[in-house]
Amino acid sequence: MVLTLMVFVILLTLFPAPNEAADTNVEAACDPKQLQPCLAAITGGGQPSGDCCAKLKEQQPCLCGFSKNPAFAQYISSPNSRKVLTACGIPYPSC
């Protein structure tokens, strides 16, 4: 799990996510680093924190872009990611 965490953090810094959002009026820039509070829940399967849910809601319009980036696709499509989105009341993106 520590290795997965390290790989994810390294990928966050090496591959910027596409800055595309479904709604052009979205104020939050697409930045996968903003989802770091969710990392433990996504990689370990635990409950997401309030900060994680808040960041997911901010980055929700960006999730399709993240899922199309090979560096992040495995995290967005993981079963734990789906659980985190459900726990935060955010629908899984249909891209």
Automatic annotation (TrEMBL):
<keyword id="KW-0446">Lipid-binding</keyword>
<feature type="domain" description="Bifunctional inhibitor/plant lipid transfer protein/seed storage helical">
    <location>
        <begin position="30"/>
        <end position="95"/>
    </location>
</feature>
<keyword id="KW-0732">Signal</keyword>
<dbReference type="GO" id="GO:0008289">
    <property type="term" value="F:lipid binding"/>
</dbReference>
<keyword id="KW-0813">Transport</keyword>
<dbReference type="InterPro" id="IPR033872">
    <property type="entry name" value="nsLTP2"/>
</dbReference>
<dbReference type="InterPro" id="IPR016140">
    <property type="entry name" value="Bifunc_inhib/LTP/seed_store"/>
</dbReference>
<dbReference type="InterPro" id="IPR036312">
    <property type="entry name" value="Bifun_inhib/LTP/seed_sf"/>
</dbReference>
<feature type="signal peptide">
    <location>
        <begin position="1"/>
        <end position="21"/>
    </location>
</feature>
<protein>
    <recommendedName>
        <fullName>Bifunctional inhibitor/plant lipid transfer protein/seed storage helical domain-containing protein</fullName>
    </recommendedName>
</protein>
<dbReference type="Pfam" id="PF00234">
    <property type="entry name" value="Tryp_alpha_amyl"/>
</dbReference>
<dbReference type="GO" id="GO:0006869">
    <property type="term" value="P:lipid transport"/>
</dbReference>
